[in-house]
Design brief:
The protein is mostly helical and 325 residues long. Helices cover 84% and strands 0% of the residues. It has helices at residues 2-20, 23-31, 40-56, 60-76, 80-96, 100-117, 120-136, 140-157, 160-174, 179-195, 199-216, 219-236, 239-255, 259-275, 279-295, 299-315, 319-324. α15 runs antiparallel to α16. The protein starts with a helix and ends with a helix.
Length: 325
């Protein structure tokens, strides 16, 4: 029926925007959602998207409640694979909350279901989640073991996207230990991203490469990688990710002793934070930039910085302050 098609398209769109991490567009989509009808399948798919959206907004307790509801729906229908997926999502939220014991239990249950049903992709996803958990706990060897087991399964199944994402997650583990291994993993992830024409993966990997070259003291290649990452994130209109790359570039300019570059960078980051409603950080970076640019008398860029400060004050409804700039 027509309604079902509309709902399918709506849910597919939500998941695509979640993958991009586009909070602004997601908010608009949730506002204009079509009636979901009585299908529990659509309702639980909608809930899963809602939980991931709340997670993107750092509302972890709310996300957890949504995933618990999703799990109970799948339990009622005895849909074991969907239960395993919901358990993995809950595990990730528990990690965000710092509840690693609960996360480990959820991952274990989820992995058990996947093994029992012979669903290899699920097993790999569970191992990848364990890799992430052990990385956060600083247990690098266990993290690497689990990431590598996941990689082997993804490779066997030809799951290129998962292979690319796990490769660049694994690369982080090698930054301090074996930088050449990290470079190899990132190069591979980049190649996979290109093959799939997945610009989000490419942009993410270029940002990692920027950090890696910076660690090696190769500032020219670092800057080149950051610029490629910025260009792609700008194309995808992802403000938060742009702020991360800008932040990393700031460290590079500082290291090169480029005060002007560092100042421009700081007000760009401040403006990004302002646009994503992270006002404390916005204020911190905008005023840091203002002081730096004043100290080196960079008049043209100071004007731009002051314009961004005015926008910041407008966004927090302090029009009087805004007029001073």
């Amino acid at each position: 029926s027509m309604k079902i098609d509309t709902v399918s398209i709506f849910i597919l769109k939500l998941h695509a925007l979640i993958e991009l991490g586009d909070v602004k567009k997601l908010e608009a989509e949730f506002e204009s959602r079509p009636p979901l009808g009585s299908s529990s399948r659509y309702y639980s798919a909608f809930l899963q998207a809602r939980g991931k959206f709340l997670k993107l907004k750092h509302k972890y307790e709310e996300a957890k409640a949504v995933f618990e509801l999703t799990l109970s729906i799948h339990q009622a229908h005895q849909d074991s694979l969907e239960m395993a997926t919901a358990l993995l999502e809950m595990a990730k939220v528990e990690m965000d909350l710092g509840h690693y014991d609960s996360a480990a239990l959820h991952i274990d249950k989820s992995k058990g279901i996947y093994l029992h049903t012979g669903y290899e992709l699920g097993v790999a996803n569970a191992k990848s989640a364990l890799g992430e958990m052990y990385a956060e706990l600083g247990q690098i060897d266990l993290s690497v073991d689990n990431y590598y087991s996941a990689l082997k399964i993804y490779e066997k199944l030809g799951a290129r996207k998962d292979l690319a994402v796990t490769s660049h997650e694994l690369a982080w583990m090698y930054f301090d230990q074996d930088i050449d291994e990290a470079l190899e993993l990132l190069t591979r992830a980049l190649e996979l991203g290109r093959q799939m024409n997945n610009q989000l993966i490419e942009a993410t990997v270029y940002n990692y490469l920027g950090v890696l070259y910076y660690e090696k003291g190769d500032y020219d290649n670092s800057l080149l990688a950051y610029k490629k990452s910025l260009w792609l994130f700008e194309k995808l209109q992802l403000q938060r990710q742009l702020a991360t790359v800008e932040f990393n570039m700031g460290g590079l300019y500082e290291a090169k002793g480029n005060q002007l570059g560092a100042g421009i960078n700081e007000y760009a980051i401040g403006h990004m934070y302002s646009l994503t409603d992270q006002y404390e950080k916005a204020r911190e970076f905008l005023f840091k930039a203002k002081n730096r640019l004043e100290s080196i008398e960079a008049k043209t860029d100071l004007v731009n910085c002051l314009e961004y400060i005015a926008i910041y004050y407008e966004r927090i409804n302090q029009t009087k302050e805004a007029l001073k700039y």
